[in-house]
Amino acid sequence: MTTSRREFLKIAGVSTLSLIAPAILCRPACSQEKVIIPGDSSLKTKSSGQALTAKRWAMAVTPSKCPTGCTACITACHGAHNVPDFGNRKDEVKWIWQEPFAAAFPNEKHAYLGESFQKLRLPVFCNHCTNPSCVRVCPTKATFQRPDGIVMMDYHRCVGCRLCMAACPYGARSMNYRDPQPFIAKRNPDFPTRTKGVVEKCNFCEERLVKGILPACVTACKEKALIFGDAENPQSELRLLLGKHFNLRRRAHLGTGPQIYYII
Amino acid sequence: MKQHQWGMIALGLVVFVILITFPFWSGKGKTSPQPTLSFDTPAIAQLQEKRCVEDTSFMRDNHMKILGTWRDEAVREGKRFYTARNGRVFEKSLSGTCLKCHSNKQQFCDRCHNYVGVKPTCFSCHSIPEEVKK
Fold it and tell me: What chain B residue is nearest to A37 in terms of C-alpha separation?
């Protein structure tokens, strides 16, 4: 018996349908058995009750208060977050560091700038922008913005493409070109390290805020040059300070909305 | 060209079948001993009720799923506390919660992971408190 073209097409169509049908009809039932993890859906996540919260975290920096040669904030931050020290500029990983005034504020630089400003070295770090360019370019959403304004890194998802480093106008992001672990002076067991091929940056001490502690750099600064607070709360120490003193933001004309305010 | 050398073809097929089935007949009857997990840590010894975050069989099957959920919720949603089925609340932390009790990673985590041949990358970043102290 020879099959006509019509017969062949009929059989082919019916067999295709019979293959697809079960997957469409009983999708939830036939799909892989889902394990319900208790507490996963119930959203009963209890807060510790003492965590520091804000609508928008921000920081005010008064660099004129910084004593010459003081690196207390850098030491505290890098110690708390297991930031490696490779000992050379090329591989350098930094969460907070110092820049001369002319480098931090290139648009404010001119030939007649006072000597006190020329000598000034400002603590600089991630600006936790309201419109962060790093978040826009990240292909894996490893960098994301929290509702309270903190621009966070999810190191689990970072693939090391370094688009964020290219996008950040402040150079606030560092790549681990080498395995950082042998270069951590004293490992803090309460904070994870990173691996080779992951980008890292300041996290506004998100892990301390949930415990109700201010960021490491802020508590380490004895001169009170760093003031941390809620920019949306008009009664916060930060807002009162910003209301009293003229302040600058780094490269604000780029439209990233930086949230570190420098009181010059 | 010569005709088919049926003898050589048959020999080749036999060698092929022997090689491809090697893992099945060579391992037949042999049993590799199941790993024995050690619960002999100071923290576990002090526990009144020897119970993990959830019951043992659930943890054995799903600890990796729990850890994956904990990771995403803690990092991305900021939900850092986990309410277990019996109402106890735990901090979602590998180093801070899991390894506080199971401080003997080599006799606990590693034994089973080696037995089933999985290589979780958790510990390439998350510290093992006992090892950091040393």
Answer: B66
CATH code, domain with A101: 3.30.70.20
Which of A151, A135, A161, A141 is closest to A59 using CA atoms? A151
Residue B88 belongs to some domain of the structure: yes
pTM: 0.79
- C-alpha–C-alpha distance, residues A213 and A48, integer Å: 12
Q: Distance (Å) from the C-alpha of residue A55 to the closest C-alpha of chain B?
A: 14
Among A47, A48, A187, whose Cβ lies nearest the Cβ of B132? A187
Please check whether residue B41 lies inside any domain of the structure.
yes
Is B85 in Cβ contact with A195 (below 8 Å)?
A: no
pLDDT at A38: 62
| Probe site for chain A from B60, B72, B81 (most A CB atoms < 10 A) | B81
B36-67 in b/e burial notation, b at 16+ Cβ within 10 A?
eeeeebeebeeeeeeebbbeeebeeebbeebe
- Which stretches of chain A drop beneath a pLDDT of 50? 41-48
Give per-residue pLDDT as tens, B68-126: 999 999 999 988 899 988 888 999 999 889 998 898 888 999 999 999 999 999 999 99
Interchain CB contact of B27 with A (< 8 Å): no
Q: What is the pLDDT of residue A10?
A: 94
Residue B28 lies in a domain: no
Angle made by CA atoms A64, A208, A135, in degrees to the nearest 5? 80
Does A195 sit within 8 Å of B95, measured CB to CB? no
Signed CA dihedral, A197, A203, A209, A213: sign only = positive
Cβ–Cβ below 8 Å for B71 and A156: yes
Q: Which of B83, B124, B127 sits opposite A39 (nearest CB)?
A: B83
Residue B21 has pLDDT above 80, yes or no: yes
> Mind telling me how many Å the CA of A103 is from chain B's nearest CA?
33
